[in-house]
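WARN no homologs supplied; continuing
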Amino acid sequence: MAVVLSISAASESALPSLEILGHTVLTIGFDPSQLASAPRHDLTILDCRNDLAGAKAIARILVAAGWNHPVLLVVTEKSLPAINSEWGQADFILDSAGLSEIDLRVRLAIDSTQSLRASATLATGLVIDEVSYTAKINSRTLDLTFKEFELLRHLNSNPGRVFSREQLLSEVWGYDYFGGTRTVDVHIRRLRAKLGEHESLIGTVRNVGYRLNPDGSEEE
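OK structure emitted
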């Protein structure tokens, strides 16, 4: 079963039947500041039923931030003409959909992301176990601190995406952390040392930040 983050202008979940299906549903409002501290989850549900303009604004924020979770839009039939690829959704579902359709669309959205991550794992040899908080590279267990693990997990969650130092600081350490961005550089250096011959998996994009390179390419 999945952990679902429901973003809604209403106080209740956009798809109440998700809990009937056994999923855990966490609901936040249309406040961008809540996105930064959103709990770990597998799927994002964006409620477009009652505030289409507000939902579109949130969708743009998610796209700009490189949101690393599949987004499923919950829409009414009359709002369909307003939906396009700019929303960054993995899929959409009508608010009138039945239980079986909801179950299928949720599973497909999550499976598509897991397939992408599995492909990246095959390319890099890096395996992240979020249950045991361990990471392996070609079957060799890496001796990581908690923050090193979280940083590597975060980079690995969206292979190829470039994260600025500021993004990594806020998304891994949190907005309440008062240290500077040099903290990120120090942890990246330690991660590369522990990766050894595979250090090039963490690439540097000059004047921008860092990314996980599935192909192990050198910095740009």
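Residues 3-118 form a domain with the Rossmann fold fold (CATH 3.40.50.2300).
OK
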